[in-house]
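ok trying this again, last paste got cut off
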Amino acid sequence: MTGVQTCALPICFPVTIGGHGIVEKQAPLLAGQAEWYVVSQLNAFKNGLRKNEAMMPFLKDLTEQDFKDVAEYIKLLRVTAKP
C-alpha cells in the first residue's frame, strides 16, 4: 500500500476541486508542489515541528517511502479553474 492509499490526502486535498486548497480546513494549495518540500513538511508534522492535530492520525504510521509516494502524487496534480 502506498502513502497515497493509506493517508487521507484525497479527503483534504481532493483532485475533484482541481488541486485547490480548502480554506475551511486550513488546507493549502498543493498541486504541483515540489517533492522535496512536501516530504520535508510531512516530516515536520510527524516530528511535531509543525502542528496540525487533524493530520496526525493519518501521518503517524506513514513511512518515509509513503511520504515520497504522497509527494509524487501531489507533484502530478494540476490546478484547474475553481468551480
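PB: full thing came through this time. The mean pLDDT is 76.
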